[in-house]
Amino acid sequence: MSEMIAVGETIVPPPALKVSSTEVAVEMIDVNKWYGEFHVLRDINLKVMRGERIVVAGPSGSGKSTMIRCINRLEEHQKGKIIVDGKELTNDLRKIDEVRREVGMVFQHFNLFPHLTILENCTLAPINVRKMPKREAEEVAMHYLRRVKIPEQANKYPGQLSGGQQQRVAIARSLCMNPRVMLFDEPTSALDPEMIKEVLDVMVGLAMEGMTMICVTHEMGFARQVANRVIFMDGGQIIEQNEPEAFFTNPQHERTKLFLSQILH
Amino acid sequence: MTAFVSAFVRDEFVAPKPPPPSTVGVVGWMRQNLFSSVLNSILTIAAGALIVWLLIPLVRFTLIDAVWSGEDRSACAQATGACWAYVKAYLPQFVYGRYPIGERWRVDIVFWMLVIGLVPLLIPRVPLKRLNAIFLLTFYPLIAYVLLTGGHHVFTGSFLPEGLVPPSVRFAAEYALVSALIILAVGLLSVLLGKPVAGSGALAGMILGGLGLVLAVVSIDFGLEPVETANWGGLLVTLVVAVTGMVASLPLGVLLALGRRSAMPVVRLASVTFIEVCRGVPLITVLFMASVMLPLFLPEGVTFDKLLRALIGVALFSSAYMAETIRGGLQAMPRGQYEGAMALGLSYWQMMRMIILPQALRLVIPGIVGSFIALFKDTTLVAIIGLFDFLGQIQASANDSKWASPVTGITGYVFAAMVFWAFCFSMSRYAGFMEKRLDRSRR
């Protein structure tokens, strides 16, 4: 799972990336969520400053996906406050749309639109949501497609691309909206092992440019390389959070130790 | 003893070879599909014999023993085959019904305009699809309406005191007044809801303006002789009912399907009620309701054209079925498509219009075409309320003493079956072609 950097290997410390000390990107205050009777998120408190790269880890069913999906309101929370980019998420549809415009999301299963070409996938939201002229939207899209290294696929359909390529398109599609925060929901979990690296490379590049990122992932190598904070969740709660180095070498909670011993082999 | 080799390194790739000859070509195909086992061979031969046994009398009746020419019943009195002379003599009636002979060119124009508009729309390679669709959906119905009915409707107006404005513009004045009130109300409502006033007002203005334009056009006297719908008949009625039903049922069905899946309880309840009521009663009942019951609820003196009532009944009825078909497509869409669209900030209607519906409708093309075909055949039921559609016209003509013979009725039905089959089969084939095409572009 984490072949990139094995345990014990000396790690190149992440370059000094600027994390704002005053500007809050995402704030979750006492967030609670239930699916019927089932309490999925319990008293989640999380403050993400601009420029932070946060990796959320935890066993399946721990609520990590649900948590980040609350940030762009794909899931509704029932108690507590979520403030994204200064806007609180309530039932106000206009606020929700504003937040979604500023928050990019990359999914486990890409969720590209199969009936549109790669280029159309990328320009759809800028043209229709940001009201960008078509020509300009295409230029922006090609810029980001070049950045994820697949400009030559622009006129193909998603079904003609490999999983890794599709996921890179999905990242480019989100970037075309020029988001202030990027959410990654297990972006490499559905990929063949040979394709994980190409996606992670794009994500690393993005982090190095100072993008605020919240990533649910099992790629611990990625966490060590770019995260400035690792959050460990279980049972719908945040169990432990720390800087990656301390998190991996010196976990405090028993559950964290068990989890790390299971996945770092 | 040979050694068990566990290590293996391939030093050359296996070149592709052709498949064994017994599996390719006509012989291979027949061996695989028709004679793959003893039982299959017996079934193949039995089925072949059955086809021949059925086909021979059919060919004899429709072609070999058929009567092709003649002036009246004497030509077919002794015939043992189809009496095509009768069909030939009655063909104009089958197509136009009792539409005045001197005015039938109007029907022809309407028909050929439909063909000219529709064919380029259906062929994927022809450009200007959008313009073509706009023409077919806005100008064409208006032109067809004026041509078929003759236009020159007189609107007298109803509530402005007489003498206030000249009678010729009374209706126009009333319409303008009501429109202004509606636009005002829409503006007020959007202020209350905090929506941009200019947008909603302009939209309401455009809709009302368009409607006004339509009313103005149908009231112009083009010098065409008015033809009452009671005189329409034959294929004309069948096509008018079927095409109107198809065109109306698709958008209505989409709205109903979305309504049924809506998160808003009132919208959902209304959609479910409408769909279940329409699906729960036979079309004949709907038509009866439209033709017999509806006038009872309308105020004295207000009359609705019988054909119009049938059109509305058929459109509403088929939209309920369409809604269920489309809902199937919506439900088959993966959640991820909704989430991907939402995460990009698309609004509900943008998401539906650009992401969900194009894919969902594509999934249910077979169902939609099935509904269209059923609708096309169901148009024959308008005969129940006294409209003479294609089949009704044929049935009526079979009783004509001029052509009465033992084979007249059968010939009529065979002809009706052939025409219906030609329409339905071409719809089905076209749908198959589109399905394949859309499928290819997806891969």
TrEMBL record, chain A:
<keyword id="KW-0547">Nucleotide-binding</keyword>
<dbReference type="InterPro" id="IPR003439">
    <property type="entry name" value="ABC_transporter-like_ATP-bd"/>
</dbReference>
<comment type="similarity">
    <text>Belongs to the ABC transporter superfamily.</text>
</comment>
<feature type="domain" description="ABC transporter">
    <location>
        <begin position="26"/>
        <end position="260"/>
    </location>
</feature>
<dbReference type="GO" id="GO:0016787">
    <property type="term" value="F:hydrolase activity"/>
</dbReference>
<dbReference type="Pfam" id="PF00005">
    <property type="entry name" value="ABC_tran"/>
</dbReference>
<dbReference type="InterPro" id="IPR017871">
    <property type="entry name" value="ABC_transporter-like_CS"/>
</dbReference>
<dbReference type="InterPro" id="IPR003593">
    <property type="entry name" value="AAA+_ATPase"/>
</dbReference>
<keyword id="KW-0067">ATP-binding</keyword>
<protein>
    <submittedName>
        <fullName>General L-amino acid transport system ATP-binding protein</fullName>
        <ecNumber>3.6.3.-</ecNumber>
    </submittedName>
</protein>
<keyword id="KW-0813">Transport</keyword>
<dbReference type="InterPro" id="IPR027417">
    <property type="entry name" value="P-loop_NTPase"/>
</dbReference>
<keyword id="KW-0378">Hydrolase</keyword>
<dbReference type="InterPro" id="IPR050086">
    <property type="entry name" value="MetN_ABC_transporter-like"/>
</dbReference>
<dbReference type="GO" id="GO:0005524">
    <property type="term" value="F:ATP binding"/>
</dbReference>
<dbReference type="InterPro" id="IPR030679">
    <property type="entry name" value="ABC_ATPase_HisP-typ"/>
</dbReference>
From TrEMBL, chain B:
<comment type="similarity">
    <text>Belongs to the binding-protein-dependent transport system permease family. HisMQ subfamily.</text>
</comment>
<feature type="transmembrane region" description="Helical">
    <location>
        <begin position="38"/>
        <end position="59"/>
    </location>
</feature>
<feature type="transmembrane region" description="Helical">
    <location>
        <begin position="232"/>
        <end position="259"/>
    </location>
</feature>
<dbReference type="InterPro" id="IPR010065">
    <property type="entry name" value="AA_ABC_transptr_permease_3TM"/>
</dbReference>
<dbReference type="InterPro" id="IPR035906">
    <property type="entry name" value="MetI-like_sf"/>
</dbReference>
<dbReference type="InterPro" id="IPR043429">
    <property type="entry name" value="ArtM/GltK/GlnP/TcyL/YhdX-like"/>
</dbReference>
<keyword id="KW-0472">Membrane</keyword>
<protein>
    <submittedName>
        <fullName>General L-amino acid transport system permease protein</fullName>
    </submittedName>
</protein>
<feature type="transmembrane region" description="Helical">
    <location>
        <begin position="410"/>
        <end position="433"/>
    </location>
</feature>
<keyword id="KW-0813">Transport</keyword>
<feature type="domain" description="ABC transmembrane type-1">
    <location>
        <begin position="235"/>
        <end position="431"/>
    </location>
</feature>
<feature type="transmembrane region" description="Helical">
    <location>
        <begin position="133"/>
        <end position="155"/>
    </location>
</feature>
<keyword id="KW-0812">Transmembrane</keyword>
<feature type="transmembrane region" description="Helical">
    <location>
        <begin position="201"/>
        <end position="220"/>
    </location>
</feature>
<feature type="transmembrane region" description="Helical">
    <location>
        <begin position="280"/>
        <end position="298"/>
    </location>
</feature>
<feature type="transmembrane region" description="Helical">
    <location>
        <begin position="175"/>
        <end position="194"/>
    </location>
</feature>
<keyword id="KW-1133">Transmembrane helix</keyword>
<dbReference type="Pfam" id="PF00528">
    <property type="entry name" value="BPD_transp_1"/>
</dbReference>
<feature type="transmembrane region" description="Helical">
    <location>
        <begin position="109"/>
        <end position="126"/>
    </location>
</feature>
<dbReference type="InterPro" id="IPR000515">
    <property type="entry name" value="MetI-like"/>
</dbReference>
<keyword id="KW-1003">Cell membrane</keyword>
<feature type="transmembrane region" description="Helical">
    <location>
        <begin position="360"/>
        <end position="390"/>
    </location>
</feature>
